[in-house]
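#lab-general

N.A. 3:47 PM
ok so I finally got the sequence cleaned up, no stray characters, all 342 residues accounted for. can someone with queue access submit it? mine expired

B.Y. 3:52 PM
send it over

N.A. 3:53 PM
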Amino acid sequence: MPELRFDPIQQRWVIISTERGRRPSDFHQPTEHSKGSFCPFCEGNETTTPSEIYAIRDNGTSPNEPGWKVRVVPNKFPALKIEGNIERIGEGMYDKMNGIGAHEVIIETPDHDIQLHELEHDHLTDVLRTYRLRLKDLMLDDRLRYVLIFRNHGVVAGASLAHPHTQIIATPITPKTVALEFESALAHYSLKERCLFCDVIRQELEDGRRVVYNKDDFIAFTPFASRFPFEVWIMPKEHSFDYSQSEDGLIESFAKAVKEVLARLNASLENPPYNYILHTGPNINAKPVRPGHWGSIKYDFHWHLEIIPRLTRIAGFEWGSGFYINPVQPEESAKFLREVEL
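B.Y. 4:20 PM
back already:
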């Protein structure tokens, strides 16, 4: 019997179509091949990218030259640009503003053919610390309300280059999906004086069926109302609203969780295309300041990483209704991921 499940965080109903139940082997993806031989992100091609913003380098190596471990550059074809003024104006009943923001690329490794979960723990930790550093820096710009960190793996997931990289886009407005999570968190906190995400974590730990990873400071689980097959969320067990405030020890634990969860997805689904998105707190110093805005955000929101394998297509019903149809029970997805041998 199909089920309708409600997600209290993103305030949406999801159809779990159990009669369409599928196993990981049913989602085999065709092997993707890189187009062409030239890659601007590979070591030795530094002059083909915009000048680097930040890099972790070997001692004695110069900016924009070989000898780096992690490198951050502006996106050559940015969605938004950092220069200029926002200039919010109305146009009849409509509103518009200049496309002010930032668009950066974190090149995670000089190695073109390695995957994120295959990096050594210390290297992956450096990548995740670079996330923190760029978040802190971009949030100093009070024009920017939100900074979204995301990663596309595979052509189906939107990756135009195969070389391992993460993207950052900072916007002068709060994206709708994140704003909805903020509203859900605030409503829950206003009613119960507890963090919605902390309550979800407690529920998942007590239930156990959807837990994929539970070690040290982090839990990973398939959400109760998962939108997609094998969707996994990773959260710190202790309350924390802003990734940019994470201590080194927490990021080291986060690297372990990311590495194992991605390795389990890779082993179960044979290197699936996926998106992962880091949802963290907003820039609480953005201007203009609205009265009462983000008054309890430090207590009601909880940063987390959403990993979404791209195994099914969104079609007319989903676009027209806002419902997602997931052909695999989250409990079954979690069981497969837990049991895979690494």
